[in-house]
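Tutorial, part two.
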Amino acid sequence: MGYNPTGGSSMLYDRLAGRPLEHEFITGAVVNAAARHGIAVPLNEALLALLRALDRSMRAEAKG
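Running the prediction step on this input gives:
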């Protein structure tokens, strides 16, 4: 199995197609589970904040 230069994640393809991102179901689930168990996940929290901002920006662009 080698590197596929045209490959990408489902969130990348969602972004390119203008569809809502899956960040709440993926990264959000990690952050929420960690909070329930009292575990610090600062990198996941930062990633979630960035993905939320990207999603808001994408939705704002789509509205015109």
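The mean pLDDT is 87. In part three we will examine how such features are distributed along the chain.
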